[in-house]
Amino acid sequence: MDVNFLVEDHETGHGKSLVHSMQVHYIHELVQSRLLHVDHPLHDLYKVLHSFCQSLQLEVLHSQAQRLMNDRLRDSICIVEYSLSKSLSISYWRDQQKKRQNMEHFPIYKLSVHVSEEDEGKPLQISHTPPMTPIESRKVGLAIKSDHLSIEKLLMQTIEVRTHSKLKELAREMQRVIDGKCEVRDMPVALHVSVLNPCMSSEVLRISIDVQTGSYMASVPSCERSAVQGIEDSLNGEHRGMEKLLMKLKVQLVLQRCEKCVQLMMANSRPTLPLINTADHPLSKL
């Protein structure tokens, strides 16, 4: 009998084999000795090798997660729990947790890779907190593919699905107070809110989600940053006063339209009345 382990990760161990030759020899001797002393030798052989490979896969994913924390993603992710040969749990969108730590009902986003509790013969399973819908789970994947182990790819797929879900939920919320269209589109994906109706492309409120932090980011091409700062703060808070903030933005966009129309005429527009001596002016008594 010959044993070969196909689990690999070129970044772990600088491209060297993940299983030492002495380990391979030990496992080979172990399964060889058990073949003659169990009732179902092939079943036992599969169980031993499968259990070892799953443990090795979890170790590879754990090593990759540690590299991500030390390299690109830093504090954006955190290894919540690593149970040897059983499970690996990673939390993401950590900045949102720090900002909302005083809120009672703020969800903690976690991704877990674990051995199946129902059938240990299955591949490593993937679960999410908060739970995803069956359709969303299938988009990410229900199990780890042994031919390509990548915790970064798994995280990015999870965040992409979460982003779509959050923006669609926000679109339904916005549609209750906006007469125009609320569409989730583009790549990277964003929510496009037509504040005015009809609405030019430069007047569309664009809301996206930061991949690393999970924070909402708002912008309007024709407006300065300060015009949407209140909306962004509200989105990253408890969404209070959103209707008033959108109305304020709508008024500002209409004023901009008026200013542009006046520019084509023989007239001048000002943000305030050009009164020099306002103390004695009749308008001061209004």
TrEMBL record:
<dbReference type="InterPro" id="IPR055113">
    <property type="entry name" value="Med14_RM2"/>
</dbReference>
<dbReference type="Pfam" id="PF22981">
    <property type="entry name" value="RM2_Med14"/>
</dbReference>
<dbReference type="InterPro" id="IPR013947">
    <property type="entry name" value="Mediator_Med14"/>
</dbReference>
<dbReference type="GO" id="GO:0006357">
    <property type="term" value="P:regulation of transcription by RNA polymerase II"/>
</dbReference>
<dbReference type="InterPro" id="IPR056879">
    <property type="entry name" value="RM3_Med14"/>
</dbReference>
<protein>
    <recommendedName>
        <fullName>Mediator of RNA polymerase II transcription subunit 14</fullName>
    </recommendedName>
</protein>
<feature type="domain" description="Mediator of RNA polymerase II transcription subunit 14 RM2">
    <location>
        <begin position="69"/>
        <end position="149"/>
    </location>
</feature>
<feature type="domain" description="Mediator of RNA polymerase II transcription subunit 14 RM3">
    <location>
        <begin position="152"/>
        <end position="258"/>
    </location>
</feature>
<dbReference type="Pfam" id="PF25065">
    <property type="entry name" value="RM3_Med14"/>
</dbReference>
<dbReference type="GO" id="GO:0003712">
    <property type="term" value="F:transcription coregulator activity"/>
</dbReference>
<dbReference type="GO" id="GO:0016592">
    <property type="term" value="C:mediator complex"/>
</dbReference>
<dbReference type="GO" id="GO:0070847">
    <property type="term" value="C:core mediator complex"/>
</dbReference>
